[in-house]
Amino acid sequence: MTNAPSPAPPFGRALCAMVTPFTESGALDLDGARRLAAHLVAEGCDGLVLSGTTGESPTTTDTEKSELVRAVRSAVGDRVPLVAGVGTADTRHTVELALAAEKAGADGVLVVSPYYSRPPQDALEAHFREVADASGLPVLLYDIPGRTGTRIEPETLIRLAGHPRIVGVKDCSYDLLGTQKVLSRTELAYYAGCDEQILALYAVGAAGYVSTVANVVPRRLRAVLDAFDAGDTGGAALLQRRAMGLIESMMASGLPGTVTAKALLAALDLPAGPVRAPLRPADRETTDGLLAAYSACVAG
């Protein structure tokens, strides 16, 4: 027995929060980005998020962000949606980036809560509405209070769901009750932004995930959703558990997911390159541990 299908998600189900490859000198590696994007799509990703947290958006320039969208679009064509991260601490700058992403060929924009200034909920709502009004692209809100210092409260999300271009949420709130409240009262497409919650959120009605770990095991994570959709809930749970060692190593080791993803990609001979300061690369011992966790995951 298969589980009843949900409405088609706006950006696909299995999305990778793609790293931004750099050359050894630290420049944007557009050829590497094209090759990595094509690999991820071939391995089961049906959407890519560019210039998100994992894509080191705080340290890439506006021009680099647009160049990245164009390069990836040239590699994957129209096969998968491309969502461009455009969130900043400045509403005006965020609007400019949204317009640039639209011009570069993105299919949607990821907009994080303005960080550092910690706006109250009415100002936060006004910020998202102004960005959504500025371009013709659908908007994926990014709720990650652990990084921004500001939660998008469920009642705010419920109000924002009435905007015709605000279509979904990348959820890193760690608030299962709040998430279900919004899911029960809106048509917003929820995407698990924390890999350990992929199956849990999907089981209560999420559209899918936006995953850092998918940079290295895209087929393994997609298989969780495929098993659940086929009615094999036990198999989906087993697949989620088998990925947990790698998820923990990459996302809960005290290092940002960007650092661990790039270390593993480099070890697997896939485009990645260095991280940009202030981030620092993983050391040899950490990389060896990541490789052990990766091997256990793909062997399971």
UniProtKB/TrEMBL annotation:
One Gene Ontology MF term: 4-hydroxy-tetrahydrodipicolinate synthase activity
Gene encoding the protein: dapA
Residues given in the record as pyruvate binding sites: T54, V210
Alphabetized UniProt keyword annotations: Amino-acid biosynthesis, Cytoplasm, Diaminopimelate biosynthesis, Lyase, Lysine biosynthesis, Schiff base
EC class (word): lyase
Catalytic reaction(s) noted: L-aspartate 4-semialdehyde + pyruvate = (2S,4S)-4-hydroxy-2,3,4,5-tetrahydrodipicolinate + H2O + H(+)
Protein name listed in UniProt: 4-hydroxy-tetrahydrodipicolinate synthase
Biological source species: Streptomyces phaeoluteigriseus
Gene3D superfamilies named among the record's database cross-references: Aldolase class I
